[in-house]
Design a protein that fits this description.
212 residues, mainly beta, 5-stranded mixed β-sheet, 1 helix, 13 strands, 29% strand, elongated
Length: 212
């Protein structure tokens, strides 16, 4: 088993903004959220589980990965503090749907170390992030169509198994391949891609000089 320090170095080198990806060597990238001044660390995994680790047991938040017993084939994809179970978990799926789950739905009456069905498993997850306030996100499809939207356009739900709402409409068999915070993109005119009146949009083609 790797030490917490080696895990930390690998995660930091591989970056903080990507969801889990397999490399040729079999290593993975783990998206890392903020955990400042919080009592618990949440580890979301590829099998739709979330493991809850008491921060008081840790010298470093990356040690949370050593405190969980993963199932066969299971890999951690998102590591974050619980922010006192305030805010929302944004989950986006390959089928173009995005859910906004109240963090209160992850709070349990008893101290539990694992919750199953932390998010819906019907379509492949492409984005997951805990937010406290609504933010602008940019979604892109496999045919390079782009939609800019604000998470305030998605109603918050208490069900962790929500399928989400259709944000990006498929076209000719396209799928949603990426969702990213607006501030992490390089768009010359972001508002060009915004569909403010409604969701369920095919989107606009990515301009040649823009990057997502």
């Amino acid at each position: 088993m790797q030490s917490a320090e080696s895990l930390k170095r690998r995660i930091e080198m591989e970056g903080r903004n990507d969801l889990i990806r397999e490399s040729p060597s079999g290593s993975t990238t783990i998206k890392v959220g903020d955990d400042s001044n919080l009592s618990e660390i949440l580890v979301f995994t590829s099998l739709c589980n979330v493991y809850i680790v008491q921060k008081k047991e840790l010298m470093d938040k990356f040690q949370a990965l050593q405190k969980i017993d993963l199932e066969p084939g299971e890999k951690p994809i998102y590591l974050t503090g619980e922010k006192r179970y305030k805010g929302f978990l944004i989950v986006a799926f390959e089928n173009g749907k995005i859910g906004k789950i109240s963090m209160e739905s992850f709070q349990t009456e008893y101290t539990r170390k694992k919750l199953r069905n932390a998010f819906n498993s019907e379509s492949r997850l492409v984005f997951i992030e805990l937010i406290e306030q609504d933010i602008d996100l940019v979604a892109m499809s496999s045919i390079k169509k782009v939609v800019l939207f604000n998470t305030s356009q998605i109603n918050v739900v208490g069900s962790r198994s929500t399928k989400g709402v259709q944000v990006m409409k498929p076209k000719d068999g396209s799928i949603m391949i990426k969702v990213i915070r607006l501030e992490n993109t390089k768009l010359t005119d972001p508002e060009y891609y915004r569909k403010s009146e409604s969701l369920n949009a095919i989107g606009f083609y990515l301009k040649p000089d823009d990057e997502i």
